[in-house]
Write a structure and sequence with these properties.
Helices cover 50% and strands 12% of the residues. The protein is of the alpha+beta class and 391 residues long. A hairpin with a 4-residue loop joins strand 2 and strand 3. It starts with a helix and ends with a helix.
Length: 391
């Protein structure tokens, strides 16, 4: 063997193993990437329905892995065994993530009449793997988060999971008409009927008017539109790039804003109160009728006063601190009226003045609205009869 032939033979012996190793690596790498591509992550939006469970809609996360034959939905919900209004307002209601097979989840929503739409998340392979790991960690924690519906609910927690899986935080873009600035805006936007909005308007205090991050202010129905414009960090990649796919048709649509609304009810009550008061002044009314009306208004006023005092002083909810309706709904006028019999008319007159100013301030304070002002007008009208009653 010549020297040149020996050099070629020696070089071939060195390069052949390296070539085989390189081919093996190139064959394994696509398999690894392909395995991760089998993972699909989607956002599920449960549309508002007539029942209390989905009155304002819900969000869920769907993760599919063809290689592992896995298809599960993950939802943030409360521990139903300990559910109750008192536990909610005392911040003792706990929430956490639970999982269910997608087939069972969709079947349950179908039986309940809830519509479900799916939006594919535009995540990289590594981000999908990370999201899967984050979900597993949350499942292991169980029901350990305080469910307050303001900062901790299905929408904010789904966004929290997605944010943890991303290499850079979500950058939101402002959407005119799609986002709110305060928790009050969010709650009123998510209210599917006027009575629901009326209750939230009653119990939420001034803290609900503070400016909040966008994450806390989105309703389930607004989240897809926001995700379609939101980007990952400073990149141009949007989190949702496709239109929604309907998985379940809604059989129980949210109730329309029809029927006896709070504004209509209290307008009728004010009209009845005015008629009874006029008839009483002209002495063309049964004696028991004004008395029955006064007792009804006094009972409602006392019950609402006690409820608001309990919410403000004995609960830990952030949005139930100072409440403007305590100016009207409090037991102080009644206590003064009972304790100062000689000064009852002056107690009524001072209270009437406060209530009149309260009604005039309605357009300028976010918490105050027309239905409450109409009811306070009913109270003020009957109180005026006592304040200027001739002895």
């Amino acid at each position: 063997m010549t020297r040149t032939a020996f050099i070629f033979w020696f070089a071939a012996c060195l390069l052949f193993p390296l070539t085989s190793w390189a081919e093996e690596q190139t064959m394994q790498q696509p398999d690894s990437v392909a395995a991760r591509d089998y993972i699909k992550a989607s956002l599920l939006v449960i549309e508002p329905a007539a029942d209390a469970e989905a009155l304002n809609g819900l969000c869920a996360l769907r993760i599919q892995c063809q290689k592992e034959r896995m298809d599960y939905c993950f939802t943030f919900q409360t521990n139903n065994q300990k559910y109750g209004p008192a536990n909610f307002f005392k911040s003792q209601l706990k929430g956490g993530f639970s999982n269910m097979s997608t087939t069972a989840f969709l079947e349950a929503q179908k039986e309940a009449g809830h519509g479900v739409k799916q939006y594919a998340l535009n995540l990289s392979c590594d981000e999908k793997v990370q999201l899967w790991q984050v979900v597993d960690e949350e499942l292991a924690l169980g029901f350990n988060r305080t469910y307050d519906y303001l900062h901790t609910q299905s929408t904010s927690m789904i966004v929290y999971l997605i944010n943890r899986a991303l290499s850079q935080p979500i950058e939101y873009n402002t959407l005119d008409g799609q986002t709110q600035r305060s928790l009050r805006d969010r709650m009123l936007a998510s209210a599917s009927n006027p009575w629901n909005a009326f209750i939230w308007q009653t119990v939420m205090g001034t803290n609900a008017d503070s400016i909040e991050p966008l994450t806390y202010l989105l309703t389930p129905q607004q989240l897809p539109a926001v995700m379609q414009q939101a980007t990952v960090g400073q990149s141009s990649r949007h989190l949702i790039t496709t239109a929604g796919e309907t998985l379940v048709e809604a059989l129980k649509p949210a109730p329309a804003n029809k029927g006896l609304t709070p504004t209509l009810l209290f307008s009728l009550l004010l009209l009845v109160t005015l008629c009874i008061t006029v008839l009483q002044l002209r002495k063309r009314c049964w004696t028991w009728l004004p008395l029955a009306l006064d007792v009804l208004l006094l009972v409602v006023h006392t019950v609402v006063s006690m409820a608001l005092l309990w919410l403000v002083n004995f609960t830990q909810q952030e949005a139930t601190t100072w409440n403007w309706y305590l100016v009207v709904f409090n037991p102080l006028p009644l206590l003064l009226w009972l304790c100062l019999p000689r000064w009852r008319q002056w107690v009524c007159r001072c209270t009437l003045l406060v209530w009149a100013v309260f009604i005039l301030l309605t357009p300028f304070i976010p918490q105050l609205d027309l239905p409450h002002a109409l009811f306070v007008a009913c109270l003020a009208l009957r109180l005026a009869m006592k304040a200027f009653e001739k002895k």
